[in-house]
Specification:
With 306 residues, the chain is an alpha+beta fold. The chain is 26% helix and 11% strand. A hairpin with a 4-residue loop joins strand 2 and strand 3. The radius of gyration is 24 Å and the shape is globular.
Length: 306
């Protein structure tokens, strides 16, 4: 008599063993995938800063001076806005209007338009808006597009607010301002005073723009320096200080918001230097060394660092 073929299936134990092996493999694979994803985000962030650095050079070539961090600190244009024509964003620049216009006069659709080059992918994707409203002037802080990079305002935040800075990108002390009744706006005439020639410490030794620290869970808040990048009111969201008392944020939860700091693994904070190169600094860098890199003309040697 011919034998019937036997049908042998998986036992429960065999099935559990296979599932366990798959789980182990996934557990081994996930960290590698996360490392690759973070490496890609870090490269993208560095490329953003590189493009911004090239735009700064183009702005200097066209105007004879560096873009200021902000024009007045009272609702005019920011360095992000001024660089738009040099980042292939001329249409948005035109939609936003005259740089001397106040923020509340700009079209809502324009101020909500995100520009990808201003976003670090390790922190967020374009699309999130700043929190609307201000107890004193509700119209001055309408929700607008955000960004993850800040200009180096110098070694002391208080100096920057006083229109004085030892950093490469200065705020502007307006030459004069008048009120134009026809459009109903203040018109400011200004010219920046910082040029490449005034950065005597050397462009390759001077930080220009880098990852700005934003406390985790507080994105979009004016109080932590994360309001619309087209609005220079409360200017510290456009710049950060770097030096003694203003070291790099060590964690995403650091409460102080006037620092530079990133969302990259290990807290690596990336900057574009004056010569257009991009450099990553760890939170372990001494604050004194960071201050030497943030100052444009102190004439002091910079010790070795990583």
């Amino acid at each position: 008599m011919p034998r019937r073929p036997s049908h042998h299936g998986f036992t429960l134990i065999e099935l559990l063993v296979v599932i366990a092996i798959i789980a182990v493999l996934i557990g081994l694979l996930l960290p590698a995938v996360q490392k690759v994803r973070e490496a890609a985000a870090r490269v993208k962030c560095a490329n953003n800063l590189k493009q911004i650095g090239v735009a700064v050079h183009a702005y200097h070539d066209a105007n004879g001076f560096l873009p200021p961090t902000y024009l007045s600190g009272s609702g005019n244009a920011t360095w992000c806005y001024l660089l738009l024509p040099y980042l292939e964003q001329g249409n948005l620049f035109n939609q936003l209007g005259d740089p001397n216009d106040l923020y509340y006069l700009r079209p809502q659709a324009a101020i909500e338009t995100p520009v990808g080059v201003f976003y670090c992918p390790s922190r967020r994707a374009p699309g999130q808006l700043s929190i609307d409203g201000d107890a004193r002037l509700p119209v001055s802080h309408r929700s607008g597009s955000l960004g993850d990079y800040a200009a180096v305002g110098g070694t002391d935040g208080l100096l920057v607010y006083g229109f004085k800075s030892d950093g490469p990108l200065l705020p502007i002390q307006p030459t004069y301002t008048y009120y134009d009744k026809a459009p109903g706006r203040f018109v400011t005439r200004w010219q920046a005073i910082t040029r490449f020639a005034s950065i005597t410490d050397g462009l390759s030794n001077t930080l220009f723009i880098g990852d700005k620290h934003i406390p985790q869970g507080q994105q979009g808040l004016l109080a932590v320096g994360d309001t619309s990048i087209w609005n220079d009111d409360s200017g510290h969201h456009n710049f950060r200080a770097a030096g003694p008392g203003y070291g790099l944020a060590r964690t995403r939860n650091d409460a102080w918001n006037f620092q530079f700091g990133s969302a990259h693994t290990g807290g690596l904070c990336q900057f574009v230097m004056g010569d257009g190169s991009v450099r990553g600094l760890t939170p372990a860098i001494p604050e004194a060394t960071l201050g030497l890199l943030a100052a444009r003309a102190d004439g002091k040697p910079i010790p070795a660092f990583e």
